[in-house]
Amino acid sequence: MSQKSNSNDSLVISYLGLRKAVGVIGLALPFALAIGKILFDGGGLQSSMSSYYHTNTRNLFVGSLCAIAVFLMSYWGYDRKDNIAAKIASIFAIGVAFFPTYPEVGATSADALTARIHFISAAGFFLTLAFFSLFLFRKSDPKKPPTPQKRKRNLVYMVCGLTMLASIALIGILAMLPWDHPIKRFKPVFWLESLAVVAFGVSWLTKGEAILED
User: Fold this and answer.
1) Is the dihedral of CA 179, 99, 88, 194 positive or negative?
2) How is residue 143 annotated by DSSP?
3) Residue 52 half-sphere exposure, CB side, CA atoms within 13 Å?
4) Virtual torsion, Cα 43, 49, 22, 207, nearest 10 deg
5) Which has the closest alpha carbon to 31: 183, 191, 188, 200?
6) Integer distance in angstroms from the first to the last C-alpha of the chain?
7) How confident is the model over 1-14, as pLDDT tens digits?
8) Which of 3, 160, 193, 209 has its CA 20 to 30 A from that of 109?
9) Distance between CA 151 and CA 159 in Å, rounded?
10) Contacts of 131 by beta carbon, 8 Å cutoff, 6+ apart
11) How many CB atoms lie within 10 A of CB 148?
């Protein structure tokens, strides 16, 4: 009995470790892409995180998304909604990784279809992750009152989910502006995508009990 209990405890610890690992990837990815581009290619920021696919940090971008996708595909939550949402998010992550956005220089009409799939996948990915934060992560056992730490974690999930939704909405508004609008000189899409990814990372780190652990 004790051996079985220890085995189950190890599985729980491993599972929490995977959640933390995914959170760390999300938290570190924007910084790793920006710094890697400066080190290997030179120059400043790209217009979006997705544009780093067309730089020497491509493998970092694709590899990080694939790692997240593999975890999400193997993720089993508390009920069917968790499992379905994880599988959907995994498929969207693969779409973001393998269907690149337009290159910043030399885009052709052949890039249009893959870019469209990329944009749909990116929006779907963030929306699904926001659903995790706003609804799935905030659920509690109805038979037990939430602990003070759980209430704090729920606040973190709420802030992270709303941050992702606000970032997506603002990116959509920016997409309607002319390509030469003055605000685009400041790379707002990159900053908003980075904010959404960091919010995703914080949310999953919290779920992995790296933050506000009971």
Assistant:
1) negative
2) T
3) 33
4) 120
5) 191
6) 25
7) 444 444 445 445 56
8) 193
9) 13
10) 85, 161
11) 9
Percent of the chain with pLDDT over 90: 58
Q: How do residues 158-187 score in pLDDT, each as one tens digit?
A: 999 999 999 999 999 999 999 889 998 999
Comparing CA positions, the residue from 97, 174, 89 lying closest to residue 133 is 89
pLDDT greater than 50 at residue 18: yes
pTM tops 0.85 = yes
What DSSP letter does each residue of 43-69 carry, written as one string? SS--SSSGGGGGSTTHHHHHHHHHHHH
Domain ranges, ordered by start, for the chain: 14-136+143-207
The dihedrals phi and psi of 97, each to the nearest 5 degrees, come to -70, -40
For 163-187, b where at least 16 C-beta lie within 10 A, e where not — what string?
bbbebbebbeeeeeeeeeeeeeeeb
